[in-house]
Amino acid sequence: xxxxxxxxxxxxxxxxxxxxxxxxxxxxxxxxxxxxxxxxxxxxxxxxxxxxxxxxxxxxxxxxxxxxxxxxxxxxxxxxxxxxxxxxxxxxxxxxxxxxxxxxxxxxxxxxxxxxxxxxxxxxxxxxxxxxxxxxxxxxxxxxxxxxxxxxxxxxxxxxx
Length: 161
Known about the structure:
This protein has helices at about 40-45, 55-60, 85-95, 110-115, 120-135, 140-150, and strands at about 5-15, 15-25, 30-40, 70-75, 80-85. By secondary structure, the protein is of the alpha+beta class.
C-alpha cells in the first residue's frame, strides 16, 4: 500500500534451516523495518558450536531439537541493510520457554509439542510454567545467558537489609 510492502507471516526454507519475517519494506525510499527469526538446523548448529560464541549461543538459543533460533532486527535500506541481534526477543523466548523450530520458525516449540501430544495450549503452558517454577530463577539465567553472548555481565543486586 503506497509503496510499502508489509508481511506478518513470510517464511523461507533453506538448506541450513528456515527463516520467518515480520515487518515492512518501503519500496519508495528503500527503508527496512523487519524482525527475522532464523532457525538453523541441528546439523548446521553443531557445526558452529563448540567452546566459542557458537557454543554459548547453542546454550542460550537452542530448542529441544538441537536447532539454533536467532532473532534478528533488520533496519537500514535495501542497499545498506543493518543486522542486529534482537536481544529483547531472545530474552522473551528464553523467559517463556518458546524457542521456534525449523518447522515453524515463527511459532513456539511448546505449542507445537503440545499439539503433537494432544494437549491444549493451556495444558502445555501450565506444564511449562511448572517446569519454570522448579528451575532456579529462569529469568535471571536467561538474562545472564543473553548478556553473556555479547560479553556483558548483569550486576548483582544486594538484598535490602
